[in-house]
Amino acid sequence: MENLFRIILAIAWASLARTAFQHWQKTGSFISFGILFINSLIVCLFLLRRESISTSQQPLDWVIGGIGTFLPLLMRPVALPSPLATLAVPLQLLGALLILACVLSLGKSFGIVAANRGIKVDWAYRLVRHPLYASELFFFGAYTLGNPSPWNGGLFALLCLVQFLRARAEEKLLLEDESYRSYFKAVPFRFIPGLI
Prior knowledge:
The protein has helices at 2-27, 31-48, 59-70, 85-106, 131-146, 150-174, 178-186; strands at residues 54-55, 115-116.
């Protein structure tokens, strides 16, 4: 099953890389390389991740994890630049930096499906329980802002729902760990400090 997942992931990534390159050739804009960079980072982390202490055996958690991983690979640039692209590009850059910081904090504890690869409580994890998901939503929201289309908007809305479901599935599994229960009580917010 995992080998099939890797093959599908590689095909989806290659399709995104081809689209980003073609968009750059047509427009001279590098905006599509941001989404390619972030998705490349996620694919690499998946391939290099640490073995888990425990992993969800719930089929729905596996489906949600897969959908959450593949949805961003389906986003596409629009033919004409959005008037909001000037705002979207720096927001994407900020989102990419936040993702990079979260990923560096996670190290090899990165995963696709709800699993316990060790409890992280430093850096942004002191503020919210799921800073990587929040950073990804920020980045892909900025990408959608710069590449507005019904397709990208629908994918982004679905991604918001899926990231919420992933966070909930992770928490359900991690709450079996005493150290996570303490962390859960100390950090009350999932995505945005003081709000959500």
